Amino acid sequence: MSEKDQADLAAMERTDEPDLDRGIVEAWAAKMISNPDRAYRATFYVATIFFLVTTLFPFYWLLMVALTPRNRLSSVGVLTPGGFNPGAFVEIFTRLPFHRYIFNSFLIAVVATVIVLLVASLAGYVFGRLRFRAKNVLLLSVLVTSFFPPAAFFVPLNRLFNRNIDILRPLMQDGSLYNTPYAIFIPLSALYLPLSIFILMTFYSQIPDGLEDAARVEGTTRLGALFRIIVPLSAPGVATAGVLTFITVYNEYFFSSLMTDGRPQSWAPMLEGILRFQGEFEVLFNLMAAASIVAVLPVAILVIVAQEKIVSGLTAGAVKE
Amino acid sequence: MASVTLQEITKQYEDVTAVDDMNLEIRDGEFITFVGPSGCGKSTTMETIAGLTLPTEGTISIGERDVTDLPPKDRGISMVFQNIALFPHMDVYENISFGLRLRKYDQEEIDRRVEEAADVVQLEGMMDRMPKEMSGGQRQRVAIARAIVREPEVFLMDEPLANLDAELRVHMRTQLQRLHRELDTTIIYVTHDQAQAMTMSDRIAVINGGVLQQVAPPLECYNEPANLFVAGFIGSPAMNFIEGEVIDDGFQSQYTQIDFDPETHGVTPGQDITVGIRPEDVFLEEDARKAASPTKAFDAVVDVIEPMGKEVNAYLLFNRDVEASAEGRGEGQLLINLAPDTDIAEGDDIRVVMDRENIHLFDRASGDAITHSLE
Ligand SMILES: Nc1ncnc2c1ncn2[C@@H]1O[C@H](COP(=O)(O)OP(=O)(O)OP(=O)(O)O)[C@@H](O)[C@H]1O
Ligand SMILES: [Mg+2]
């Protein structure tokens, strides 16, 4: 080994390298390279803060707008409200029956979710666990439904729901579904069904056959085995499908606004209520903001309650038990 | 308590026939064991009886009822699954009581029965455990408890003792036999363990490739195997087979000759047959008196010796030119059982005799047994 080689080796082993002159950035970079854990942690915090700011800032600003008195709306700051007027949160209920709009949306979303989960469970069982001819064709045709833009279905459905149907007369006053919750959750359930079928099918197919067999020998029917064994074991999937359906239906505007005349007693949804604060001569931005915040609460609560299941549902399949 | 009758049961999967035209009558209160190599259709037969798979053809009756089209819950059966199949989201108590709760027994009755069943399988104090907090053996015992707690007419048990240690297995074996006696139920059992099959069963059903080979009491399967497959499958170590041909005054193979009168045993000179002799029916020439009716002696060379404790297995070659095959059971080779104190060493030249009373003859073309004794 030559003397030069030895000198190089010695240089590589020295860590402080005192004779190199460095700027702040270089020094920082060197520190990160010698200590990668710190770099990862720093990146993690930067990324987390970025996502938190981009997702939460709109809420924050909504709150700022809601708290600003109406006559000072033009002076809302980026970070501070233009005043302090919590009364807006009361006013939304006095000026309009906004609670009724929320109730409408909530009820429609709950009913749609229940229908979707029930039907999708049965379909998911069939697609995920049974073998039969033409299964893939059938599955594909179910999925194709969800590829259409909802607007494609609107015109025929609207015509249908506006017609007086005699057999419905005992149920509905005038025999037409227009201005009833049925006109909203029937098409919405159908539209969001394929997604849930797909989610549940994936989960149900992973439950070992032996468990279903054991349940059936112990005394359940196939249906009993589905609801006593397969569904509980697929809880994350069911929660995910349920919450996704609930949120989409709750937030849905297109069908919900067109299938009713917009009055709360005609089952107009929450979004319709928010838009009602937009009067003929002025737009009550503070009330719209307050209403939006109130409207988001049911979903927020639901997600917080179900979050553990949803997280494991969305990441399931990564690790199979 | 019920008999089980399979009539012409066939189960066809896309590429395999798992069960092939099976006719079997299982008597009321009988303990019958299905044995056979892996993949021969034991579990499929069980599932067909349970109603978990529908047979492609044939009918099944339990008791007097034709149950071919009944769902599992209406067949009056319970089953221990090969893969155990405990419900992962229920604790031990809920698992065991699942069937009782479905049938709406009152709480007191459920508690009493669960306690009894847990007692039989020694699971006291584990009622609150979840399946994933238990060992494989404990889970298997929960599965057995879940099956016995309902006191059904027919038990189906697919290798219920596979995951237990030797001591617990012997204990459970006795427990199951006691249970069988007390409840007087019909038990259909699957095992790979010959000791279990021999000791527990009233009858053994030997299956190969989906086809029923022989149904008989254990000792009959052992002493009078119906064909080459049963002869080779039942008994451990397995029977020796020597392939050869019938000649005018007996049997001739490459290395051996055995004298007998072809006519009395229903074979004709020129016929291809296989001689079967169990390792314990071959003796050293000096011990020939231990054989009821010794043949004349053969020369042999000791190839490998395996001392097993209570006996010695010796792999012999008929002469020094025989190629020893890896498993020691090829043409020209013979496995014999000797007393543990026998004084032989590998490489010794010895002379052995066979016991004519226990020489089996099989027709090589069909595999069927011709006779089980040359006397
Ligand atoms: N669902 C199925 N689809 C297709 N083939 C199957 C199915 N179940 C079993 N088989 C086939 O049927 C045959 C019999 O299987 P079975 O499970 O009854 O064997 P077994 O005797 O229980 O084996 P082991 O002793 O290994 O448990 C095998 O060849 C197997 O591959
Ligand atoms: Mg099996």
From TrEMBL, chain A:
PANTHER family: INNER MEMBRANE ABC TRANSPORTER PERMEASE PROTEIN YCJP, MALTOSE TRANSPORT SYSTEM PERMEASE-RELATED. GO terms for cellular component: plasma membrane. GO terms for biological process: transmembrane transport. Belongs to the binding-protein-dependent transport system permease family. Keywords: Cell membrane, Membrane, Transmembrane, Transmembrane helix, Transport. Pfam families: BPD_transp_1. Its main location: membrane. This is Binding-protein-dependent transporters inner membrane component.
